[in-house]
Amino acid sequence: MERKGIFDRIIGGLAYLGGILLGCAVIIKFCDIILRYFFNKPLTWDIEITEYILFAVAFFGAAWLLREGGHVRIDVLDNFLSEKGKTYLHLVHSAVGAFVSMVLCLMSFVAAAYSYRDGLTVVKIYTIGKYYFLFIISLGFFLLLAEFLRQFARDVRKVRSKSTEEGAE
Fold first, then answer.
1. For residue 1, what pLDDT is reported?
2. pTM, whole model, 2 decimals?
3. Quick one: CA dihedral 14, 15, 19, 21, positive or negative?
4. Burial of residue 89 (number of CB atoms within 10 Å: 0-12, 13-18, 19+)
């Protein structure tokens, strides 16, 4: 099934951006190793920037990974359930995931707003507004919420179409 909607482009673009950022983190660490061990001139900012990149990559790629079915899943139940049972289990999974994502999205958004209002910062080598990080968390969970809702709707359609087929027989 080819995905071409705006939402799919957004999560695909963010996953792609996450991949680019991850590549940048690798290059930064490589340069630091070369500079540290061959020229005795280590980068002072590499650890902090790499931390921020890894943080962003996790939230930028989460919804894409969920869409692609790459999240950790326990297959023990799936192996023992019928197709109908699997569909109902996935319905529950999507509903719980959507609820948790909604709560975390709202809480992180509210925390970002308060952080912005109060001028809270993260102070390391660089001083960065804490709300940037909280907004990334909120965005990541919003996209996860939307993807969980899409999967829930897909599974509801699947249950309805199967019940319609069974009723027609």
1. 47
2. 0.85
3. positive
4. middle
**pLDDT, tens only, 104-143:** 999 999 999 999 999 999 888 889 999 999 999 999 999 9
Joined together, the tokens standing for residue 27 give 């290059």
Cα 114 to Cα 71: distance, rounded to the nearest angstrom: 31
Kindly state the tokens that stand for 59.
């939230």
- Cα separation, 153 vs 157, in Å, equals 6
SS (H, E, C) the chain: CCCCCHHHHHHHHHHHHHHHHHHHHHHHHHHHHHHHHHHCCCCCCHHHHHHHHHHHHHHHHHHHHHHCCCCCCCHHHHHHCCHHHHHHHHHHHHHHHHHHHHHHHHHHHHHHHHHHHHCCEEECCCEEEHHHHHHHHHHHHHHHHHHHHHHHHHHHHHHHHHHHHHHHC
